[in-house]
Amino acid sequence: MEKTVGGERAAAKAAAFGKFVVCGGGVGLLSSAVLVAAAGHAPFALVNAVVTVVSTLLATELHHRITFRSAEGGWAGWRVHSKSALTLLGAYLFTTAAVLTLDHAHPHPGALLAQAVYLGASALAGIARFATLRLLVFPTRNPAREAAREAAREAARDAAREGTREAAKPLDRDGVAAAA
Question: Model confidence over 88-136: pLDDT tens digits?
Fold first, then answer.
């Protein structure tokens, strides 16, 4: 049975999303374990800040190398890390707003309701973050499209050079370039 191009793209996107969940979830679990292990040994705010920064760097590297398989290879670089951190900030603001809205709407929510709201907001934020990372931070490369763009750029450069040559030819009295 032959796969269609659209089916292959859908499968690739689903696989990338699965990798996103595994990499991000794995880093989240590791971060949680570090927070639990550090409890009582250092102020929570300090440990949480360090864990947040380190886990963001680690998750970005994993997404760069595994989830989106960046063609650039090597270290993701500060530009990629900055963009990824902004998506994480957006997710943080969204989940915080969801929990604060719950607290405002229901002053004493039970732990189960609070957790459900937080996890639901986290899931929505994760989907939005995945889409943003895929489209803006780690855009997929299409070799055929890139080749077509390069051919168009080359044609434009050639046309510009030809236009320069045409402009350099002497004109006859009617303003027409003389034949070479």
Answer: 888 888 887 888 898 899 988 887 888 788 778 878 888 888 888 778 7
Instruction: Record the tokens describing residue 28, joined without a space.
Output: 């989240």
Q: Please report the DSSP string for 5-74 in residue order.
A: HHHHHHHHHHHHHHHHHHHHHHHHHHHHHHHHHHBTTB-HHHHHHHHHHHHHHHHHHHIIIIIS--TT-S
Q: What is the pTM of this model?
A: 0.57
- Distance (Å, rounded) from C-alpha 114 to C-alpha 134? 30
Structure tokens at 154: 């080359």
CA distance 5 to 46: 49
Rg, Å, the chain Cα set: 26
Q: Are 124 and 158 in contact (CB under 8 A)?
A: no
Residues near 81 by Cβ (< 8 Å), separated by ≥ 6?
56, 57, 60
Residues 6+ apart with CB under 8 A from 68: 16, 133, 134, 137, 138, 140
